[in-house]
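Q: Protein A?
A:
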Amino acid sequence: MKYIPRQIESELLIASKHFSGLILTGPRRAGKTTLLRKVFPKAQYYLLEDPDIIARLRADPRSFIEEIHPPAILEEIQNVPEILGYVRTQIDRSPNKKGQWLLTGSQESPLMKGATESMAGRAAVFHLLPLSVLETPKVSVLNGGFPEVLAHPSVSQTWFRSYILTYLERDVRAISSIRDLATFRRFLSLLASRCGQILNRTDLAAPLGVTVPTISEWLNILEITSQIILVPPFYENFGKRLIKSPKLYFYDSGLLCHLLGIESENVLNRSPFLGAIFEGFVASEIIKLQMNSGKTRQLYYFRDQQGLEVDFLVPRGDHKLILLEAKASRTVWPETAESLSRLSKVVSNYHIDRFLIYRPSKGKESIAALRPGIKALPIEKLLSALS
């Protein structure tokens, strides 16, 4: 597959001129190593999953690090976290040399947290998610954004099946002492069926025969490995009593479709899960844009106890707030923007922009005025405006 330029490249290059190290986290197979090797072509490359390299590192870490001539890419640093002290020593010896140590990790696990803490002030930290619709038009609700799926969509189901097996055996076991991976796999499928819903841990625990604390632990695993998004409620109540639990989505809609047994556009368009899948797709694309721009993730939803609900709220600074509704339909009507109108009437102290995101047919991507101050547009046009 031809290399697809990533939006985050400019942020990495800027940081490499100001920090001795870069730490790039993100889910497995999102393209972290490909990105670093493209942006820093002169850097040496070391895969810290190679048994020979791990053995050498553990036998004599100081010699191994001192033999490296930076810049160097150290992939999957969480497998050998004990070398971070030696990397830090090398950085402190030459503090004026920037962009020398390029580290990747597939998890935001305690190991990676230790990496970021031990490199504080020495390394800039970034998070890479799968490809965005702004990076390639190949990204879709059905296939998601993993580069290898987009390169070979005809074998996407085989790829996702293998991905889940690898994820369970490597990432899940690296973080937790889970023994019953079969039940955890059932948990993944059950969670897929709850996409777009308010998170209810008790509802998830009962059919699996596990405790609520176990469900909380498993959700934490999925969140720190960037498989799911837990969207919190907006932090201001606007004078209303709010629902306080987060909403659940998956980062990659292709993986979600696989878990739900959706293998074609026809099946997707008829699926009762289409609306929730599309909502999650929109949430993921907004977060990708924020992270690729070097910004903090800021995405919320609003729902009060009287039933008023708006899918997403995106703060923009300077008391600006974007209200978003996501509708998977090809056609939108003024009535579909009712919740945006109702919430905007009670929001104070913010300048409000309101959009309804929908799925227009190919070739009919346009911006339409639904109501005064409310526009309907495809996700690509919203992201272009936000960026």
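Q: Protein B?
A:
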Amino acid sequence: METKHATPKASRPYMPGYGILDAAGGRGLLPWDWAVERLRTARNYWIATTRPDGRPHCVPVWGIWLDDVFYFSSGAKSRKARNLGANPNCVVCPENGTQAISLEGVAEKIVDPGTIRRFVEAYNPKYQWDLKPETVLDMGPIFAVRPRKVIGLDATPGEFQGSATRWQFEQGWPLHPMLTKNRPPSRDAGLRPC
């Protein structure tokens, strides 16, 4: 059974030049359940990370949406695992580009046995796989991506400008030390984020 968390704050994303309507325009803001359904039911997801030299890296993964967190496993020496070890910021997108979701978050390795068990219990039936909680970490780490911001939109004809929604999460999640230590000043100070 999935734990319900507080609904994140919804608003329109800042997207100048796209004709985005105000929050009451079009079909209004999408409900958070709309995003959760797409995050929960997608089979394939794209995860974008950043190499230590700043170049992007994006690959498909299988994953699980559980308790408002996205979980996926990886080979310990994979490029994405090494990237996340150096910089835990990442983007996760379910495969559907028409009813699109873009989740920006912070990844951390999971070692808690109860969380690993729940991941395996959700993963195995979804992918007809046979992971074992006792041995899954032998293959590589399990990452949890905690969302900071999610953008969703319906790109079916006539829906885009009146459906684009941004959900922002409370910053109560534990932050990786890299996110708080030696942080350089923002290059985009004064700009509005999506």
